[in-house]
Amino acid sequence: MSFQQTKVNLKLPFSFILSSMIALVVSQWILFQNVDLIAEGYYRTPALWMAFHLLILGFAVMVVMGAMYQLVPVAFLTPIWSERFGFVQFGVTIAGVLALSVLLGFNPGHAVYGGALAILGIIMFMFQMFMTIRKQKEKNMMTWLVTGALVFFLLTILAGFLLAWNLSNGEILNHESLLRSHLLFGVAGWFTLLIFGFSYKLVPMFSLSHGYSMKWAKPAFIIYIAGMLVLVNAFWSMNQLLQTTGWFLLFMAFTLFLLDIREILAKRSKKRLDRPFLFAMISVYFGWVIHFLTFIVSILLPGHSKIWGLLIYLYLVSWVLFSILGYLKKIVPVLWWTLKYADRVGKEKVPMLKDLIREKSSVIIYSGIVAATFGNVIAVLFNSVTGLQVFQGIWFLFALAFSISIGRILTK
Amino acid sequence: MKVSLEEQVEEALYEVIDPELNMNIMDLGLVYTVQVRENGEVYVRLTLTTPGCPLHDTIVGGVETVLYSIDEVQNVEVDLVWTPAWTPDKMSRRAKEMLMF
Q1: Is the dihedral of CA A44, A47, A52, A53 positive or negative?
Q2: Residue B100 to residues A85, A207, A209, A260: CA-CA distances in angstroms?
Q3: pLDDT at residue A57 greater than cutoff 80
Q4: What phi and psi, each to the nearest 5 degrees, are found at residue B46?
Q5: How does the average pLDDT of chain A come out, rounded?
Q6: DSSP secondary structure string, A49-79?
Q7: Is the pLDDT of residue A2 over 50?
Q8: A89, A124 in Cβ contact below 8 A?
Q9: Among candidates A27, A188, A182, which has minimal Cα distance to A101?
Q10: Which residues, 6+ apart, have CB-to-CB distance to A140 below 8 Å?
Q11: Is the pLDDT of residue B86 over 70?
Q12: Residue A52, domain extent
């Protein structure tokens, strides 16, 4: 195989990642401005819809798309199907996400139009990825996990579109069941399967691990999907036993994934792990605990909406966002280093990747984000608007600090 | 004392660094074969610590750059292979000391 085949125009992933940083900061600012709604449990309000969609679509999805434009060609040893199409997809997606978020915030009745544009961008992305993955010569477990994630992404946006349709034209489907399915497909199906998939590549790469088995990857994939199918069934049939069974299956699958990650880390050669990568690894443990708590809550407090709201928040933030924030500080330096220094190797002295990251400030930022996240949870549990103001304010400041630290990498 | 082309080539390869590990590719044990052929042709067979490493274009490009900077080298062929797979025991003692302890 020629090594030239996997080269990608790095401006493409950077376009996604840099715009995602703005969405992260703005979403945290809107949340900060509306902490009273969160404290009172009014999650389904235009301002919070806007903040959540900016956070999930504008930040998490955009950053994942950018990372995939870089990771898929190198990790799958397969070139991107069309870079030009990628730039068009970026334009359509960012316009759609912005339109959807703003319309949800100020004119929810017309959100379906923004949603349609966002969906078009996402479908273009999926088409790009399917065309790329299709060309991969030797499929592996990572291929299945990423493909599974993309399928759930498609289901997420279909459910999201139906939700927006419900808002615009009156209910055609059970809104509650549809909302639960939308959240499950998006948060668990899309993000979790994707993080599983890329972790199997990134964890050994960043820890220099060899001789690990990945023996639980296939059962974890199958059981996680089975768990989601059971849960969707439970949401629409309102069957409590099925719901608990579904959450148990997700917990089991996550446990198997964790066992694989522990084995990979145990067999690593690099003893001292970089702080951002270590943070991504800690998020795996957070994810495992959240899956366990979800299973327990489904037995003990199945109808407690506040606790479920907090679990969704913790699932999304302490597992999905923490993973992304951890990996991002490893991925961006690689991208920037490649863009700026790759052609200078052998001609002059070039910096190392670690020179691009400030480890000490990373530890402070990640610690602040963890403290703010759990502070938010405690504040909601005790109905403390002041507590939420303080901790969401801290979240906003550290989100800003994180974005600045990513920007600083690009000055080196 | 005149340094042979073989020695110059090997010395040059020590300048190619894996920027993630902060270690040159020779000490990492990534270079499997170095052949200096007639008419200044150099053949290098190497691998990476893991298939799908985002830096593989960079490292292969770095090898070409350092070798073409040697006057006698006319043509460079870099063969990136995945078998046999790299293992940590291919590292030099220096690399092991830096990374594993």
Answers
A1: positive
A2: 43, 10, 11, 21
A3: yes
A4: -140, 165
A5: 90
A6: HHHHHIIIIIIIIHHHHHHHHHHHHHHTT--
A7: no
A8: yes
A9: A27
A10: none
A11: yes
A12: 10-138
Tokens describing residue A213 = 């088995």
- Domain assignment present for residue A25? The answer is yes
Task: Report the C-alpha gap between A81 and A77 in whole angstroms.
Answer: 12
Which of A143, A223, A246, A153 minimizes the C-alpha distance to A191? A153
Least confident range of A255-264, A292-301, A358-367: A358-367
> In B, which residues are within 8 Å of A345 by CB distance?
16-17, 58-59, 61-62, 65-66
Residue B41, SS3 per DSSP: strand
Interface-testing mutation among A7, A205, A214, with chain B (most B C-beta atoms within 10 A): A205
The reply to whether residue A338 touches residue B58, judged by beta carbons under 8 angstroms, is: yes
Count of residues in chain B: 101
Give residue B61's Cα distance to chain centre. 11
Confidence of residue B85 (pLDDT cuts 50, 70, 90): confident
pTM for the whole structure: 0.89
Write out the two tokens for A118: 């966002």
Q: Residue B1: which pLDDT band, with cuts at 50, 70 and 90?
A: low
Average confidence (pLDDT) over A230-252? 96
Q: Report yes or no on A105 lying in a domain.
A: yes
**A40 belongs to a structural domain:** yes
> Residue B29: which of B83, B82, B89, B100 has the closest Cα?
B89
**CB-based contact A24:A55 (threshold 8 Å):** yes
Compute φ and ψ for A345, nearest 5 degrees. -60, 130
* Chain B interface, Cβ < 8 Å to A: 12, 15-17, 19-22, 49-66, 69, 78, 80, 85-88, 91, 99-101
B-chain residues within 8 Å CB-CB of A80?
none
Radius of gyration of chain A (CA): 21
**Across A27-31, A318-322, A352-356, A399-403, least confident range:** A352-356
Q: Is the dihedral of CA A283, A287, A289, A293 positive or negative?
A: positive
pLDDT at A3 over 90: no
If one counts the domains in chain A, the total is 1
Helix axes A11-33, A46-53, angle to 10 degrees: 150
The C-alpha atoms of residue B37 and residue B41 are separated, in whole angstroms, by: 5
Instruction: Please state, for a pLDDT cut of 70, what percent of chain A lies above it.
Output: 98
Residue A373 lies in a domain: no
CA distance A150 to A411: 34
**From CA B2, how far away is CA A404, in angstroms rounded?**
52
* Residue B101 pLDDT level (bands cut at 50, 70, 90): low
List residues of chain A with CB under 8 Å from any CB of chain B: 1, 3-4, 6-7, 70-71, 74-77, 201, 204-206, 208, 210-211, 269-271, 334, 337-338, 341-343, 345-347, 350-354
